[in-house]
Amino acid sequence: MTELTFELVDGQKAAVEVRSALNGGYAGRSQDDVAAHVAELAALGVPAPSTTPSLYPVAPYLVSQADTVPAQHGRTSGEAEWALVVTDDDVLLTVACDHTDRDLEVHGVAWSKQAGPDVVGRKAWRLADVADRIDDLTLTAWVGDGDTWTEIQRGTLAELLTPHYWLEVLRKRDLLAPGTVLLSGTIPMHEGVDQFAPAWRVELGDPATGDTIRCEYRVQLLPEPIG
User: Fold this and answer.
1) Were 46 and a residue from 9, 41, 102, 185 both cysteine, which residue would form a disulfide, CB within 3.0 to 4.6 Å?
2) How would you label 92-127 residue by residue, b for 16+ Cβ within 10 Å and e otherwise?
């Protein structure tokens, strides 16, 4: 199993063995906006979900704190998200980037989620410490080449279903247990920005304290296959 280590604000560290991993989808707070987004994606050939919000279980080994993401072709990209991490005695909140195969997505969203990692930050906050201002937390993503960056996503957690909502989902499914990691779903991308970039950076920010949590990685194309 994958083991993750998070640095907390007070300097303590929390280690977690990932046992269950789940990706939220179509998880906007406004389900009217979600319905419009589903229609837009359907026009591009992405199959509509049977229900929204959606939840996609993925292989636990896909949750990573890697600096490099291997990809088989040039049409994969990230999504700015937050992640819940259930430990033995707490629930942590960190930043995440769900790297997705866009070519595979038109054949099935669940399949596309299995084709790339969920990159999470190396720092985390205790959810209880930020719960009273969760909607004020900011989520921002940039794409680039590692030196030059262009913003592609910006919003607040008020745009997404709350951590409390997803904790209730986990509880009802008997998944609110140590080792569970859940990603939130994402916010809209800016129009006109190329998502198929060689590097992604995502930040989760707390305006009340000025603290930020970041994950950043480069996309590395694999060699051409033989056969």
Assistant:
1) 41
2) bbbbbbbbbbbebbeeebbebbbbbbbbbbebbbbb
DSSP secondary structure string for all residues of 21-39: EEEEES-BS-HHHHHHHHH
Q: Which residue bears the tokens 């009340």?
A: 208
Domain range list for the chain: 3-221
Q: Are 115 and 101 in contact (CB under 8 A)?
A: yes
64-82 tens-digit pLDDT: 999 999 999 999 999 999 9
Q: Tell me the Cα Rg of the chain.
A: 17
The pair of three-digit structure tokens given for residue 113, joined into one six-digit string: 């989620």
34, 28 contact by CB (below 8 A): yes
The whole-number average pLDDT for the span 161-170 is 98
User: Which residues face 42 on adjacent strands?
Assistant: none
pTM as predicted: 0.95
- Please give the C-alpha separations between residue 3 and each of 14, 19, 65, 74, 139, in angstroms, as whole numbers: 10, 9, 10, 29, 25
Considering only CA atoms, which of 122, 143, 18 is closest in space to residue 80?
143
Query: Which pLDDT does position 44 carry in this prediction?
Result: 67
According to DSSP, the residues that pair with 48 across neighbouring strands are none
**Using one digit for the tens of pLDDT, what is the confidence trace for 13-31?**
999 999 999 999 999 998 7
Instruction: Give domain 3-221's CATH architecture.
Output: Alpha-Beta Complex (3.90)
